[in-house]
Specification:
0% strand, mainly alpha
Length: 200
């Protein structure tokens, strides 16, 4: 029988996630990962494979934990406007939370990757694109229900709010507080198209 692992795998993954979130994929080394995780390189490789596979697992873990508020807001709110406003306001709190690195890992972890990490860039871009399309889908549902003006461009409106989310992440990384981010959300929601009043 093999020796049992001398570390808590879930706790180690949490620490790896924080390293990737704080420094990005490219700048995070095996040495910094093993130091943060409290393991030796052979244990890291045995438990997680290489750095790339560890990153993929960290991304999935982020989506299931810190980033899960996005899917919840879109699934639980009755209208696109309510869902997107809830998503943005929760992002303002989450991105500025001092309990973890600022901003959104999915937005920031591949910003400085070179050509050798093109697959990492593509993975995170695909996740962001799916998130944007989820916004578009909810907006189209509102348009179909008459909650938005006829001719509303759902793709453009979804892209606008996806851009707001990315901007909130960058502002949080630059030190903006939750209150400052929430004020941006208030302004962004003022851009939501109002449905035409029914004819009297």
């Amino acid at each position: 029988m093999g020796r049992p692992r001398a570390f808590d795998r879930d706790a180690a993954l949490d620490r790896a996630l924080a390293e990737f979130w704080r420094y990005g994929y490219q700048a995070t080394s095996i040495a910094s990962l093993t130091a943060a995780m409290g393991v030796r390189p052979p244990s890291l490789y045995a438990a997680f494979g290489d750095k790339r596979r560890l990153f993929g697992e960290a991304v999935a873990h982020y989506q299931e934990t810190h980033g899960a508020f996005t899917a919840r807001a879109l699934a639980e709110e009755p209208t696109a406007r309510a869902a997107i406003e809830r998503l943005l306001r929760e992002a303002a709190v989450n991105y500025a939370d001092p309990a973890h690195p600022p901003g959104c890992m999915i937005i920031s972890a591949a910003t400085n990757c070179g050509p050798e990490s093109a697959d990492v860039v593509a993975e995170l871009r695909d996740i962001r694109e799916r998130s944007k399309q989820a916004l578009v889908t909810r907006i189209r549902q509102d348009a179909g229900a008459g909650r938005l003006p006829a001719g509303t461009d759902a793709e453009a409106l979804g892209a606008f709010y996806a851009a707001v989310i990315q901007g909130l992440s960058r502002q949080a990384q630059d030190g903006a507080s939750a209150a400052e981010l929430d004020a941006i959300v208030t302004l962004a929601m003022a851009a939501w198209p109002a449905a035409a009043e029914p004819a009297g």
